[in-house]
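> call design_seq(struct)
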């Protein structure tokens, strides 16, 4: 098998085991020695490193070993004729390579690592006795060795390692490249982190570039004094930013399709989006007996499946109702109390302090709601983890939507105080974004420093002396001490991208829904997002462990949330314009008010009709897909005819194309 330069053997996975108190004379029973020998027998390359308190076992899989694992997993890969076929080790030239020239993507390689690591089972006729220091335990027949050691807390953690050469390259041309404000090496990000993280950064980059247009309009409105013409200029600005948002969402779909085509990712992907070492069963939760019982009457079988389907939907509806009622009964009074206190307090300093305390207090309510949502999600029935994660996103965003916007709605629609509304928006945008950036960039470092302090303290206690400096010389040990890139709501369904996407969605809602009240917010958002691209890249490359790769074809439920916020912004900005036009509160149907109502309906029509004007898939992507599908169909038809007729000649199925 030909090895591409990008596929040279690199240590990509690390296992952490505790240091043993004493070396065993009989290495055949020592669990770590048994594990190392098993890995060598599989074909892994191994490097063992002694750390301060733990031992690290780095693994590298040669390309041939990964190919065998992919074949055993019956992994499907894209071929040069456009079909996704089962991988075969002897036919590697038939499969399309990745943008960086490698045969397997990072997500595919990690899936192979998972299979190889956890696929080591006891094939003996009896249980094997293993030892770790003074403890003895049984490795039962048919059990996975690594899972047995994990249950005994011997294998502490398994995590992916950074590739130091590629990491430094990405640091130079991506995380620290401030000269190109929104430019990013997206193909390299995809090759290193996987499709889900790459799609997020592609979305963030395009969103930031498009943000420059409304930011420029907002600056013009802020710097130029229009006087009495302002009531005419604001509706024009409002129409412009709504059309901008509609076009952005549609053109992002086109870019998304182009990226998926370039990366050769299957559109019909429906499996577990988390290609992780700790996999979660993602299949539809249908009782096995319904599938295995071949003698069941067809009518009863149909009724049973329908009962499972509709009971599952009713459970989802019940859980959604629980979340909505909890928001209304528990969070709404708290939000309204804060908004009312802010309105009646006169001191700006006290208002600022109240806002800071409020932002900290709501974190507790949100985490409580997130835990409740996670428990509700576990009771629901979904086809795969991707849909489970989307349902969780909708529920959590409902909590944050109420938390972030109800106070602003209170000032905008009830008190109709424009000056207070602008002040609230400035404080929310500045405080929340500055606070988020501080937490994002400081917490990982503080966690890393605290873990190093704990390890040093433990080592000094073992030595019985506080003298001498303890150094962490191993790169694997330093990465082990770094925090994982995980979501604040939990790690089962979502990684750290949940918090990053949530931050973007809340920002989008804040600047869009109250655009007429504070046009300059778009300029603040553009500056924040330019910084966000680099800081998010830096924390992934330097502050966190290398994230587990997750497969994805879109940004998921977040795009639907952006669409919802566009519709909300049409309604809220029209309400703000009506308020500005009718400051006396007469609510008479005059030409100005009628024009605003007509404008609202026209914009809503444009929102839902623009998708027919701009296709979601670029023409070249569609043409290429149709062409390859036609070729594949022709080849399959000819091969089938050859098989039926019993012909002996092999069909030359690779046609010369342009």
């Amino acid at each position: 098998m030909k090895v591409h330069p990008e596929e040279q053997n690199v240590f990509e996975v690390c296992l952490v085991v505790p240091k043993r108190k004493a070396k065993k004379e009989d290495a055949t029973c020592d669990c770590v020695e048994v594990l190392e020998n098993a890995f060598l027998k599989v074909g892994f390359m191994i490097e063992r490193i002694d750390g301060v308190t733990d031992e690290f076992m780095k693994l590298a899989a040669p390309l041939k070993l990964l190919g065998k694992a992919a074949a055993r997993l019956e992994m499907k890969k894209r071929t040069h004729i456009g079909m996704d076929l089962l991988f075969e080790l002897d036919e590697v030239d038939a499969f399309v390579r990745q943008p960086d020239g490698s045969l397997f993507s990072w997500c595919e390689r990690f899936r192979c690592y998972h299979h190889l690591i956890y696929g080591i089972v006891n094939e003996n006729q009896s249980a094997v006795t293993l030892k770790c220091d003074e403890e003895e335990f049984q490795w039962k027949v048919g059990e996975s060795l690594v899972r047995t050691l994990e249950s005994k807390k011997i294998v502490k953690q398994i995590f992916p390692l950074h590739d130091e050469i590629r990491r430094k390259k990405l640091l130079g041309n991506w995380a620290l490249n401030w000269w190109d404000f929104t430019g990013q090496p997206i193909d390299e990000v995809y090759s290193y982190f996987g499709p889900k993280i790459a799609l997020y950064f592609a979305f963030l980059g395009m969103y930031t570039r498009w943000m420059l247009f409304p930011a420029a309009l907002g600056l013009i409105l802020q710097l130029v004094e229009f006087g009495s013409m302002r009531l005419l200029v604001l509706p024009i600005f409002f129409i412009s930013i709504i059309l901008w948002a509609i076009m952005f969402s549609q053109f992002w779909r086109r870019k998304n399709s182009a990226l998926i085509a370039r990366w050769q990712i299957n559109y019909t992907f429906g499996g577990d989006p988390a290609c992780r070492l700790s996999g979660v069963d993602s299949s539809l939760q249908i009782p096995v007996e319904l599938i295995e019982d071949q003698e069941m009457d067809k009518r009863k079988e149909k009724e049973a499946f329908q009962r499972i389907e509709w009971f599952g939907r009713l459970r989802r509806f019940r859980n959604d109702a629980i979340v909505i009622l909890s928001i209304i009964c528990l969070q709404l009074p708290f939000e309204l109390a804060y908004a009312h206190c802010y309105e009646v307090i006169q001191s700006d300093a006290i208002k600022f302090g109240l806002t800071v305390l409020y932002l900290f207090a709501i974190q507790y309510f949100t985490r409580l709601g997130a835990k409740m949502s996670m428990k509700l999600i576990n009771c629901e029935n979904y086809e795969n983890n991707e849909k489970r994660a989307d349902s969780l996103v909708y529920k959590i965003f409902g909590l944050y939507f109420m938390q972030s916007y109800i106070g602003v709605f209170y000032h905008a629609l009830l008190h109709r105080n424009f000056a207070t509304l602008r002040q609230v928006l400035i404080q929310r945008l500045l405080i929340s974004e500055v606070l988020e950036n501080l937490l994002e960039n400081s917490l990982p470092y503080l966690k890393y420093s605290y873990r190093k302090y704990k390890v040093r303290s433990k080592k000094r206690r073992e030595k019985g002396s506080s003298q001498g400096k303890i150094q962490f010389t191993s790169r694997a040990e330093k990465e082990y001490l770094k925090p994982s890139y995980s979501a604040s709501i939990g790690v089962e369904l979502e990684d750290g991208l949940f918090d990053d996407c949530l931050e973007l969605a809340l920002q989008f809602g804040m600047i869009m829904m109250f655009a007429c009240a504070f046009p300059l917010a778009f300029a603040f958002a553009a500056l924040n997002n330019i910084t966000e691209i680099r800081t998010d890249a830096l924390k992934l490359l330097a502050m966190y462990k290398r994230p587990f790769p997750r497969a994805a074809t879109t940004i998921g439920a977040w795009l639907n949330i952006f669409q919802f916020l566009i519709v909300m912004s049409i309604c809220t900005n029209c309400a703000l314009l009506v308020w500005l036009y009718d400051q006396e509160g007469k609510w008479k149907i005059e030409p100005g008010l009628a024009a605003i109502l007509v404008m609202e309906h026209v914009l809503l029509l444009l929102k839902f009709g623009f998708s027919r004007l701009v296709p979601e898939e670029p023409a070249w992507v569609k043409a290429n897909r149709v062409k390859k599908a036609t070729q594949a169909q022709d080849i399959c038809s000819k091969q089938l005819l050859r098989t039926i007729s019993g012909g002996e000649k092999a069909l030359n199925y690779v046609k010369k194309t342009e």
